[in-house]
Structure prediction request, 411 residues.
Amino acid sequence: MSEPDLREQLAAAASADSPFPEDRFAGRGIVICAGGARLFTCAWVAIALLRRHLACTLPIEVWHLGPEEMGPPMRGLLEELDAQPVDAFEVAKRHQVERLGGWELKPYAVMHSRFREVLLLDADNVPVRDPSFLFDRPEFRDTGALFWPDIVRLSPDNEIWAISGLSYRDMWSVESGQMVLDKSRCWRALSLSHWINQHSHVFYQFLHGDKDTFLIAWLMLAQPYQFIRHSPKLLEATLCQRDPEGAVLFQHRNGAKWILDGNNPRIDGFRLEGECRALLRELARLWDGRVFNPPPRSDEARRLEADLARTASFASFGFLPTKERLNCWLTTASVRAVSTNTIGMRATVRTARSCASNGTACAAVRCDCPRTGPGAAGISNHPACPSSWFLPMPAISSSAVVTEATETLCC
Prediction:
């Protein structure tokens, strides 16, 4: 595409009428884009830290691109932290989009999240205290957009200035590891940023990903915004952003993303590192690091699952010690073939008043696998069975759930 054509298309996008859909959004919350095993690890640590250590109660959405980036065990782990997984491909069936990648997803997720006011937080960004107060700061209330400065600037000879029709601005780029937006007040600028990202095959040639698409969109529309006036603090492989008073608030590990079972270098000056590492160890007990999706359920399994849900009572079975991960494993004991869909099983167990009363014991597991043959009680007899298959259940009754999943759990 020639530069004149691109300039004309960008100008047309900037002048487009984009009315704010008033009835679609309400409240405030956090949006994180975190598909795939690596970013999921980072996001889970950040969310668990927010919930357990920083007492953050804001609703959270975690966006991803289809089942290949997030399976039922991963969704279950997020739900236990009161975070809602959102599949962008499902949203795209209602709100059309042509291009979704890692960076392109961010403005799309902000636009179509259920929140009116959004804190967009990168998955590898670790807050040091509850960021909820940002929504009430005058810097945000006055403009509806709160940005943080990067450590680089757009150069005077960057093509974006001519293409956008803007005169050169000697200013910091936007560091989009965190931003706070009121969609009702900046919908047109957000829509223009999304349009630029939809043409990433062109704009990413001279813009570094999504971050400066926000800056260019806001400048083109003369949309008010507030830059945090304090420069970032640099740690090894980490960019620390400050609150409006100058204290460190976010630690963006953009060069040292958490690894579930790998080498996570210690970073001098990084806060809450001990808590983060403890959460990493916990996650390694809960999840095997794979994006796992169960095989399709048979018609018989669906029928028996419905029968179990209607029955809503089960006989007790013997208990075995459990991994710290599990309150109650879905079991294979006296009731034949339920389902190999973990979400379906989860719903069935909840309907049936699940789990052991103390929340630590679990029922024995047997996997009738065509590859390994019928097994004895205990998942340890089946190394091929992914531990991530089994989701924890809330301990809400004094009886144990006994079900049997004879479809191929481990094959």
Notes: The two ends are 49 Å apart (CA to CA). Confidence is low (pLDDT under 50) at residues 313-411. The chain has two domains: 3-286, 299-389. DSSP finds 13 helices and 15 strands in the chain.
